[in-house]
Write a structure and sequence with these properties.
By secondary structure, the chain is α/β, with parallel strands linked by helices. The protein has two domains: about 280 residues, nicotinate phosphoribosyltransferase, CATH 3.20.140.10; about 100 residues, Aldolase class I (TIM Barrel). It contains 16 helices and 21 strands. It has a seven-stranded antiparallel β-sheet with strand order 13-12-1-5-3-19-20. Strands 7-6-11-10-9-8 form a six-stranded parallel β-sheet. A four-stranded mixed β-sheet has the order 18-14-15-21. The longest helix is centred in the first third of the chain and has 25 residues. The chain is globular.
Length: about 475
């Protein structure tokens, strides 16, 4: 990761709780679920992202001497507990949904099964990593969908700091962006870097034409000229003049065109396309930027804008209309040293905050003919289902809403995969560009109705009969109120 050791990237109460478990001699294993409650950006899905950074964090989890001394200086911790931390390592299991997977509310994206002190410590870092990258990946997926491809991530200078810029670029490319302007992200994740020049390049020359000619001489095979520094139509004419001079000199550029960063992009790009075509440059790219998001891109498409590629910055890298993914990390079960599991539930007057108890897994149900998602089914870990059997699923809140799936008409896929077993990593994360291909295939499993920007059709996330019955029993159990 960007840092060597993120062990202290945690909230203080995680470590004070650890000390409490240590002092009480706790030997229990805990099952924690990381999930989110509401789809970002008013959509019907999210894109899971950030698992590789979680893996790197867990692999590097240890307290250095300087960490111990800092914790000692706070006055919160006893010497025997600090001595214990010197040998601390993660020895538990982690299961997760692969990066790039389309996901829905209330289903675990990450499941941690570990000694309770270990499971408690990793909460904050897992949340900050998965929350951020999943948010940006989801936003990017929406932007790429409306653009139809050709989206470049240009947000580094507007990101909330270097980390947000670096890992936001990674998430955006996983979700479908063709590249990033972020050079460090390009180096770290082996993803394409894109970009041309700024208005300052034009302004540093005596004339716009001289600036264009100089740039074309330096980068004949990546010659995208920014045309709106002074007068956009005049800038397009100057760009055409330079393209003609290159052609007359026998230079056949592999990639050339113009970029607009202001003005009425619908009108100007249609005008530019006509001018370029009439001048004999039908292959010239027209790139647009200027505070784009999925809604503005949708509007420009409806207006017939002639845009080949899209540079999307601020509104993507910050997810401006939905600044937080909202993922949470909740205790689902306690397993005593003798192997007995005690499912746990959090009650709330707010229905969406009532948790699903027990050690669970997620089954994705696909329509067999279309290979589109019918629903997701959260079940207890030990349950088995066959796609050859008839299956009735139901809404866990409005239980009268039921769907009958005849055997043989649907397919089943278990979503979560083992990532760590007994503290050892058993999963090798694909490269970012491989994740991009996987994510593209995942998005194809959504019905068109669930991709709408406005009022999309939500995908059902249901509970198995056994899990539903367990949840109801715990909700109505007097034991949940005992001291």
């Amino acid at each position: 990761m960007y840092y060597d050791n993120l062990t202290l990237l945690t909230d203080l109460y995680e470590i004070t709780m650890m000390q409490g478990y240590y002092e009480s001699g706790s030997q229990e294993t805990a099952v924690f679920d990381m999930f989110y409650r509401k789809n970002p950006c008013g959509g019907a899905y999210a894109v899971a992202c950030g698992l590789q950074q979680v893996i790197e964090y867990i692999k590097g989890l240890h307290f250095e001497d300087k960490d111990i001394e800092y914790l000692r200086s706070t006055g919160f911790f006893r010497d025997d507990f600090l001595e214990y931390l010197k040998g601390f390592r993660f020895t538990g299991d982690i299961y997760a949904v692969p990066e790039g997977t389309v996901v829905f509310p209330m289903e675990p994206l990450v499941k941690v099964v570990a000694p309770i002190m270990q499971a408690q410590l990793v909460e904050t870092a897992i949340l900050t990593i998965i929350n951020h990258q999943s948010l940006i990946a989801t936003k990017a997926a929406r932007v790429v969908q409306e653009a139809g491809g050709g989206v470049m991530e240009f947000g580094l200078r507007r990101a909330q700091g270097p980390d947000a810029g670096i890992y936001g670029a990674r998430a955006a490319v996983v979700a479908g962006c063709i590249g990033t302007s972020n050079v460090l992200a390009g180096q770290m994740f082996d993803i394409p870097v894109k970009g041309t020049h700024a208005h300052s390049w034009i302004m540093s020359f005596k004339t716009e034409l001289e600036a264009f000619r100089t740039y074309a001489r330096l980068y004949p095979d990546n010659c995208i000229l920014l045309v709106d520094t002074y007068d956009t139509i005049g800038g397009i004419r100057h760009a055409i003049q330079v393209f003609q001079e290159m052609r007359d000199a026998g230079i056949e550029s592999k990639f050339y065109g113009i970029r607009l960063d202001s003005g009425d992009l619908a009108y100007l790009t249609k005008k530019a396309r006509k001018m370029l075509d009439e001048a004999g440059f039908p292959k010239a790219v027209i790139s647009a930027s200027s505070d784009l998001d999925e809604y503005l891109i949708n509007s420009l498409q409806v207006q017939g804008a002639k845009i080949t590629s899209w540079g999307v910055g601020t509104n993507l890298i910050t997810s401006n209309d939905w600044p937080s993914f909202g993922g949470v990390y909740k205790l689902a079960s306690i397993i005593t040293p003798d192997g007995v599991e005690h499912p746990k539930i959090k009650k709330s007057e707010n229905i969406v905050k009532v948790t699903n108890p027990g050690n669970k897994k997620i089954l994705r149900l696909y329509d067999k003919e279309e290979h589109k998602i019918k629903a997701d089914l959260i079940t207890l870990a030990g349950e088995n289902f066959s796609s050859e059997d008839d299956l009735t699923i139901f809404d866990p809140v409005s239980t009268w809403k039921k769907t009958f799936l005849p055997g043989g008409t649907y397919e089943i896929r278990e979503l979560m995969i083992p990532v760590f077993r007994a503290g050892e990593c058993v999963y090798e994360s694909p490269k970012v560009m491989e994740l991009q291909k996987y994510c593209a295939a995942e998005k194809e499993t959504l019905w068109a109705e669930s991709k709408r920007l406005i009022n999309p059709q939500e995908v059902h996330v249901d509970l198995s009969d056994r899990l539903y019955d367990l949840k109801q029993a715990l909700l109505h159990s007097v034991d949940t109120f005992k001291d």
